[in-house]
Inverse folding.
């Protein structure tokens, strides 16, 4: 892999993103935009018995945004709703072997997308 | 894997003939032109004198009007700040186009801090400065007008001859940043009434670290670098002799071969442009015809600029983006991530961080390489769009006939 500004891990996820797509009749859908750059991420969750059964995403954004989206879906799958909500952008960045300082905000989009999708889930499934 | 360099606007490779010309001044003739009582110094002095004539010839100037610098940034700084300082009492107004390089724009900061007023001229959608807007912006107290010859990000060539005549009438010193254009398209200061012209060696197959500022006879410029009396007092410091010799060799080659390469690049550029126009929702930036040969710039809806460049690089194709999203990867934080001022100036939606992609071709590029890029790009766009939520929405809107 060519060196470039990103870690090999970022490039690997960028080139082969996991879980791209949609979930029909998802239990929670989150969409967040990044006002700093106009990029956008949409996250679909299937939740069964309080756990994230499946996660799919679509992202319009830079390499860091796409890799963060991909990594995030891997990280939250199998987690309980509470655990998934607790995932932070820095954990995502760390799992990617780091991001350039100016690109940290791209991982924030991933964190916010989970929260937004889980809010949507909570709204649809009150109690 | 193929290595295709389509980023000649950022820099060009050294022409091997230029390397041969500079080599003796690295190894054999290492003298200091200021210490010229002996043969070493004499050789260096004569080399710099000859170089001055060759660089002058590139733009139809007199040798005594060429000041060697460390590059375009220094030349632009010297032009802006040096002219402002000499402008004299009460002249505290500068006029620049909205698409000038950072080395012009940021040189205005100390002027602003010192109470100067700066008028930034808008450009139209193609990136052209309107000469009439220049006319109405110039005032009795204008110390300087700066409009670039060609823009590196969008390729547009500005009507500097016409603008120069307006400046001349108004008696305002006119600076032209020719970093992107010099050595590629003609610029003759006998026809273009510019008082200052910035030249950059590494943008026309010379080495980095050398540039020049043309200062028309009679134009007053105060130095920015203080010390000895090199460069007619405009710029102190021992001359970069090998760099200067090399820049001159590059200038001489450009003077001779410019037309040939402009044809070659024009042909490749057209091929690229025609091929790219087949990609749906792709928007070219810059002027369709008044542009640098071999320069093709564009942005693509639903496919983000940096991602495109990363994928292209994986395919061995090296291109650039004007968008800060990718260009400022070494920045400290997200504050460094601002939309490209040039793209904003030509009206590309600022909430889109796509940035414009710039393919800038050079002497070494071939039709084969253009075909490679034309083969790779549509697939990359397709792949990114399949990943994009905005493209999904767009498709839904389309299928609903909306
Ligand atoms: S630059 Fe926009 S998300 Fe990375």
């Amino acid at each position: 892999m060519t060196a470039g500004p990103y870690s090999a891990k970022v490039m690997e996820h960028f080139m082969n993103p996991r879980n791209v797509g949609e979930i029909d009749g998802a239990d929670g859908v989150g969409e967040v935009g990044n006002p700093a750059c106009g990029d956008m991420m949409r996250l679909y969750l299937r939740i069964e018995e309080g756990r994230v059964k499946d996660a799919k995403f679509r992202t319009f954004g830079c390499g860091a945004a796409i890799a963060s989206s991909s990594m995030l879906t891997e990280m939250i799958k199998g987690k309980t709703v509470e655990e998934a909500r607790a995932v932070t952008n820095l954990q995502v960045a760390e799992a990617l072997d780091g991001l350039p300082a100016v690109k940290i905000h791209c991982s924030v989009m991933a964190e916010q997308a989970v929260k937004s999708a889980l809010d949507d889930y909570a709204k649809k499934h009150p109690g | 894997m193929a290595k295709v360099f389509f980023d000649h606007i950022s820099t060009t490779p050294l022409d091997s003939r230029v390397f041969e010309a500079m080599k003796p001044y690295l190894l054999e003739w290492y003298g200091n032109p200021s210490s010229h009582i002996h043969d070493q110094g004499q050789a260096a002095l004569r080399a710099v004198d000859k170089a001055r004539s060759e660089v002058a010839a590139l733009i139809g100037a007199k040798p005594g009007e060429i000041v060697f610098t460390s590059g375009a940034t220094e030349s632009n700084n010297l032009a802006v700040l040096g002219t402002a300082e000499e402008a004299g009492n009460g002249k505290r107004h500068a006029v620049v186009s909205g698409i000038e390089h950072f080395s012009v724009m940021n040189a205005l900061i100390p002027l602003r801090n010192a109470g100067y007023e700066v008028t930034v001229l808008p450009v139209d959608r193609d990136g052209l400065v309107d000469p009439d807007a220049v006319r109405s912006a110039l005032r009795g107290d204008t110390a300087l007008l700066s409009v670039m010859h060609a823009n590196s990000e969008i390729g547009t060539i500005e009507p500097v001859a016409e603008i120069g005549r307006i400046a001349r009438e108004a008696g305002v010193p006119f600076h032209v940043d020719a970093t992107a254009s010099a050595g590629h398209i003609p610029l003759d200061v006998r026809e273009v009434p510019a008082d200052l012209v910035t030249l950059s060696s590494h943008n026309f197959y010379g080495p980095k670290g050398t540039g020049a500022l043309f200062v028309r006879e009679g134009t007053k410029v105060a130095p920015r670098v203080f010390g000895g009396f090199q460069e007619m007092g405009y710029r102190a410091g021992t001359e970069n002799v090998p760099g200067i010799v090399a820049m001159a060799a590059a200038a001489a080659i450009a003077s001779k071969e410019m037309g040939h390469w402009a044809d070659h690049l024009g042909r490749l550029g057209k091929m690229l442009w025609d091929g790219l126009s087949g990609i749906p929702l792709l928007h070219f930036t810059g002027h369709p015809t008044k542009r640098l040969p071999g320069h093709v710039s564009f942005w693509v809806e639903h496919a983000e600029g940096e991602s495109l460049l990363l994928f292209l690089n994986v395919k061995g194709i090296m291109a650039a983006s004007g968008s800060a999203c990718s260009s400022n990867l070494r920045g400290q934080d997200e504050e460094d991530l601002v939309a490209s001022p040039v793209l904003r100036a030509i009206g590309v939606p600022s909430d889109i961080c796509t940035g414009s992609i710039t393919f800038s071709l050079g002497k070494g590029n071939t039709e084969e390489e253009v075909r490679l890029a034309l083969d790779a790009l549509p697939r990359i766009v397709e792949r990114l769009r399949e990943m994009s939520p905005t493209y999904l929405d767009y498709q839904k809107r389309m299928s609903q006939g909306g």
